[in-house]
Amino acid sequence: MLLDWVLLLPIFFPLVGALILAPIAPKTPARIRIWLPFVYLLIEIILITVNAAPGLHRLTVSEWELASFSIVLQMDAITWLLFLMTFVPLAAIWFIAAPRKPFDLLAILVLTSALLVLSAANLITAYIAWTLLDVFIFLWRMTRNIEPETTPRSMTIGLLSGLFLFAGAILVSTKQPNGEVLIAVAFWARLGLFPFHHLLPTHGADPFDLWFARGIPLIAASNLWLHWSTIGRDAPVTLIGTLVVAALIALINWIWRAIMLDSNSDSAMHVPTRAAEISLSSAFALVPLTITLGGNAGVALALWLTLAAVLAMALFEMAHRWRADSLNRWHRLIWFAALFALAGLPLTPAFLGRIGLYVALWETNNGFIMLTVGIATLILLAPMWNIGLALKAGELREPRRIEYAGLVLITLVGLALSFGPTLIASALSPAVAESYERSIDLVIRTNDALGVGLAILTLIVPVIGSYFLSHRLQRFRPRPDAMVLRLARFMDLDWLGNLSMGIGLRVAAIARGATAIAEENPTIWILFMAMWVAIFIMLFR
Prior knowledge:
Layout: H1 8-24, H2 30-33, H3 36-50, E1 57-64, E2 69-75, H4 77-96, H5 105-118, H6 123-143, H7 151-173, H8 179-190, H9 207-226, H10 237-261, H11 271-293, H12 298-324, H13 331-343, H14 350-363, H15 367-390, H16 401-419, H17 421-428, H18 430-443, H19 449-473, H20 483-491, H21 494-520, H22 523-540
Antiparallel strand pairs: 1-2
């Protein structure tokens, strides 16, 4: 029992360590202060490594027997690996450029609440941590003026999707139907995908804002999907397939607007980051689809898709950092490494996950979704080639040793995920190792040569085709009133938000008018009381 308390260390150390180091850092000499963030991350990584001890760390924080609710945290093999993938890439990015405010209290609260979601052992715990995450993201964005116009909408979407999760948890616990549908919608919303894309911010004042506001919450949301089997019900196939297709169509339209329209505006400097976010969203959209259709191999396939997306996210962020700091010696190579990791080419972490997903789609007669994923990959990757070739910095500056250390660290992570999946899966847990074996059976030890061949074509052709399509995109500029751009604006659903706000204001005006009438005419209250007396009489009869 004492050993289970170890799992609290990596969850709460970021907050405790920040509270200790925040007042100390300004008083330390500059040559020491620059190393404090790395010491901070090193201690966190050590505390995560301590939890690699055999067995499942599971700690019951609180339990309410009358309501059958309990707050339980756990650190199983998958959660442990995602904890590690949260902080190791972050350390590599910080080697490139240390953040100006590494111990910002609200940012650390966002991180801690995301870690609570990541380590939640049941739906009730996930709901409580989920609510904390939305509240802290709201406060953090408002205090740092990060997209303040959409921040209240984001919090509303997060809290409503949390209520979906709570309702689904009650239905599942009481063995009522359709509980898994509400849970699936909530988990999908947590990924910040269409039509819940306003949940997470798209850009901020500093690139590190994106890692805390998008990267870490996305890792936590992916872990919810990776533990879908604990719900005890099959994921709704039709719902997930429909959401994936709708999200991919929306992303295709948004990439056009981000590249073709925003590149001609004042936000052109944010185009690489925005394009990377849109492309990464397509990768995270495949995780629920893999869990739903992957069968026994789904967990392993979805795990490697998640790890590859996190690696690509870190590489894109690193390329952007090296470009911003005039390190134009490596930034293009890093950008294309991120692109290949995202596409799932051979010898990259996502290769097995992509091939396995395509084979599963073929074997379950979901060829339309398979075709949609291939076309979306083709269109989404095309602008990424142009951005990588156009990445330029200022004067050439030789990277420092500490910056090379960040590149070496992220390279080692990529090599480990690419060439050691068998070793990693077997070292994690028997369940993950078994799922990995089933994925090998699905892709390699199979008699379905046609399905595997089509899967390889669906993987390779979009990557090659996107390269040639990128050259045509350089000569094509749609007008601001083009259909594809109007469709992209329509899919932003801003019109729906404005309509809802208008209806809400109208209802509020009517309510104020009604209360004003009641205040001016006491007869209204007499009639109101008479109505309730009549209702009670009818009920007793």
